[in-house]
TrEMBL record:
Organism annotation: Xylanimonas protaetiae
Membrane spanning residue stretches: 17-38, 84-106, 126-149, 170-194, 200-219, 248-271, 291-312, 324-349, 355-378
Protein name: NADH-quinone oxidoreductase subunit H
Keywords for the protein's UniProt record, in alphabetical order: Cell membrane, Membrane, NAD, Oxidoreductase, Quinone, Translocase, Transmembrane, Transmembrane helix, Ubiquinone
EC number: 7.1.1.-
Gene name tied to this protein: nuoH
EC primary class: translocase
Localization per Swiss-Prot or TrEMBL: Cell membrane; Membrane
Topology term for the membrane: Multi-pass membrane protein
Length: 440
């Protein structure tokens, strides 16, 4: 195990933390505007259409125009809503989404221009920083749940219930994939995890956990093909149906900030954080890993993962809800749990008997490829044949009951008395009725 070091915040004071917090807030708000424009442009190119190209150069001001429209739009409240919870729900979602970047390292210590004062490019860090990230993501779903419940409408309630099941399912898989990083690094501090990826990025030895995390982060942020809580074709707009103006914009803002959050966490834990990719990291003894360069590498990794979000949205169709839950509980969680057990055993053997790091990486990659192959080519379980339908008496117990699966209602006694129209001529369906003269 490579010894790691925590970021040194000894030179920071209250004003330093305040300035960093404001810079992170500005960064997130500007990034959301860029992300909306970026998504429209990429999806437009994938669908052979221009995307935004009118407001500003290359359509860059389109997101700003949309934000101003939502800000100035008439604010409407639902009469049947629980007023306090209805207003509080979008605030919870936005507030929790803004907390995650507090522990994300943008880079190592940077020296301010024209001064001798240096500070880590990170707001704060502590030994359980990754658990703090998971806690913020878990509490953030309360905004969705309360927003759907307090609206006093059917479709928002269905969207909030779906969101609850979705977060429980995919956060379990995400948590199990992150435990693999804890085992290999021996720490839950984000700065120490980045420090221990000096020689190799963790996505190489932890490839199955990396794949599970990437899939889980798309499900965690309610993005296509996992946007079941806000499925427009089924639930109008899901938990946001009864929201308008800035309250709707807060939910919209929280969704895109959460995309940036999970992308930053993925870059930090699996892709080396702020470290330059090889072979750039080997130039002049790692000169590109010092100063302000690491912030550039970190942002590049985050936006590559943001492109993955957009790419998946423009490529895949929305899953059915049963397929979505089956995939989470019967595929992702078992794979993540099996990989975690295997990694724990291999790590114990490596630390106990001195197995080389290269051999461990080779074994982990091979086992990961075997797991992926088993999942891909596992024979599909055949569904049992449906039993033959059996007629039943709906009034057998003295009151009418609906048929169960496999049962059919008897034919209606009035069916033979219904008239049948043939060539605009009404003919009685009763066999005892004599046909009129001239009819066939």
């Amino acid at each position: 195990m490579i010894p790691g070091v925590h970021a040194d915040f000894s030179n920071d004071n209250g004003w330093t933390f305040l300035v960093k917090a404001v810079l992170i807030l500005v960064f997130l708000l500007v990034s959301v505007l860029i992300a909306i424009w970026f998504e429209r442009k990429v999806v437009g190119r994938m669908q052979v259409r221009p995307g935004p190209n009118v407001h500003g150069p290359f359509g860059l001001l389109q997101s700003l125009a949309d934000a101003m429209k939502l800000l100035l739009k008439e604010d409407m409240n639902v009469t049947a809503a629980d007023r306090i919870v209805y207003l509080l729900a979008p605030m919870i979602s936005v507030f929790c989404s803004l907390l995650v970047f507090a522990v994300v390292p943008f880079g190592p210590s940077v020296r301010l221009p024209w001064t001798d004062w240096s500070t880590p490019a990170q707001l704060t860090d502590f030994p359980v920083a990754v658990l703090y990230v998971l806690a913020c993501a878990s509490v953030g779903v309360y905004g969705i749940v309360l927003g759907g419940w307090s609206s006093g409408s059917t479709y928002p309630l269905l969207g909030s219930v779906r969101s609850t099941a979705q977060v429980i399912s995919y956060e379990l898989a995400m948590g199990l994939s992150l435990v693999s990083v804890f085992i290999l690094s021996g720490s839950m501090s984000t700065s120490m995890i980045v420090e221990q990826q000096t020689t190799r990025w963790f996505f190489i030895p932890l490839l199955p956990a990396f794949v599970v995390y990437v899939i889980s982060m798309i499900g965690e942020t309610n993005r296509l093909p996992f946007d079941l809580p806000e499925a427009e074709g089924e639930l109008v707009s899901g938990y946001m149906t009864e929201y308008s103006s800035m309250k709707f914009a807060w939910f919209f803002l929280a969704e895109y900030i959460n995309m940036l959050n999970v992308s930053a966490v993925c870059a930090t834990l699996f892709l080396g954080g702020w470290r330059a990719p090889w072979p750039l990291s080997a130039i002049n003894d790692g000169m590109l890993n010092e100063g302000w360069w690491p912030i550039l590498w970190f942002l590049a990794k985050v936006w590559i993962l943001m492109f993955v979000f957009v790419w998946v949205r423009g490529t895949l169709l929305r899953l059915r809800y049963d397929q979505f839950m089956v995939f989470g509980w019967k595929v992702l969680i078992p794979v993540a749990l099996g990989w975690l057990v295997l990694l724990a055993v291999l790590q114990y053997v490596r630390l106990g008997e001195g197995v080389g790091t290269g051999s461990l990486v080779t074994v982990l990659v091979v086992v990961g490829l075997v797991l992926v192959a088993l999942i891909t080519f596992w024979p599909e379980k055949r569904r049992p044949e449906e039993p033959a339908t059996v007629a039943f008496d709906a009034h057998a117990h003295g009151y009418p009951v609906p048929p169960l699966p496999g049962q059919t209602l008897p034919p209606s006694p009035r069916a033979h008395r219904r008239p049948v129209t043939v060539d605009a001529t009404v003919v009685s369906d009763d066999a005892s009725a004599a046909p009129e003269e001239g009819t066939r």
